[in-house]
Amino acid sequence: MCDINPLNVLDLLITEYSRSYTFGSEITDAEKELKRQLHSFIESCLRCSDTEFTEDEQLIFSSEADEHVLNKADFDCELEEEDCLERSRSGSESSQPVSSGSSEYLPTPPLAKPLEFVEFKYKQKAVEYWRSGAAGKPRPMKFVAAQFKRLKNDGKTIYRWAQQVDEMGSRIDKLVQIYNETLQRFQAAKKKRYIVHDADLKRWAVQANASIKLADFVASGTFLRKFKKVNRIVSRKVTKFISRLYINDKKNLADAAREFVTGLEMEALELPDPFDICNGVRGVEAVVQSPFGTTHSYTIMPIITADGRVVKPLFICMQEVNGEFGPIVKERMKEVLSSEVHVVASKSGKMSKDLFLDEWYSQCLLPNVGTNSIVLLDSFPVHKDTDSMKSITPEEYENLKIRVIPPGTTGMI
């Protein structure tokens, strides 16, 4: 069990918020919902020995479907620098003087083609083939160039490649190795749902270079920006808190989802109409950076059959200060709204137990589904009270079956 005393946590929270709030106000539905979520999270922390707490931001792939392959464009600056160094060594950039007293100018020599980005493994194979001649002598260059099309038959490139292979790669080759090893560490961390920051990428790059030995490499800000751009890594706000327990329970959740579906399929075989299966789905609640950035809240709970039809009416719960519409709004609603929607109000705009039983279940669901149907509900606390639903269900619906989807498995069904 974690070294956490929930009472100490509450005491710290009271101390923090007592500067701005006081006790005594009426408890709202929104406060009840927040209490439920906090209680669930604290319980998961108490059951788990190594709960992780997320921070404000983390690094993620901007598109998990895209897998980028390093190419020449990613190292244009490095290639240009290496190209200049290579030309300075060979003297290819020397220019002939032009007499200032003559009106005739010598033609400008053609610009040399920039170096091509060639993978280190390709260079290794070419050098190994070149060195594997008879009696330990190098193979003739024309045969090597014919076998490796990206090798220039100029008598210089193969020696430069051989030197790079002996040094375990050129500067660019070593950068690629650092990129790849850092990326592998990042991918492994994201699979385990760890939070990754810029400092982690820098640390992994420096650790990778300990064996690669690229001179003067310090994982600078420029390296970090290019690494994130090349691999499409961006910063995102954390919008959900989870404990390690949730990750460890993922397999159990998948098993529970499969068992639920198997049992449901058996029950569906007994239905006269295979599509007499209805699903009540609550509206998705989004997390915003500031509650004051939103002006209203509402809940939509449609009834959807197994074949994808939306059963009318559509249930909508709006947020009103006093929990009900004013007289003018009520009159206007009678004129505008049709029988295809069923609109109610609450102080929070969220579903309460009374609204669920008296409005959605009694007035939206029962009159519009068959008496021999299966109703699927997610594990929202209000939906779990099947005894209350049965107590208000008419006798003709005695064959109606209500099934609550196991917690945490709605997205797997």
From TrEMBL:
Region feature Disordered, mapped onto this chain: 86-107
Q: Classify the source by domain of life.
A: Eukaryota
Bias (Low complexity): 91-104
What name has this protein been given in UniProt? DDE-1 domain-containing protein
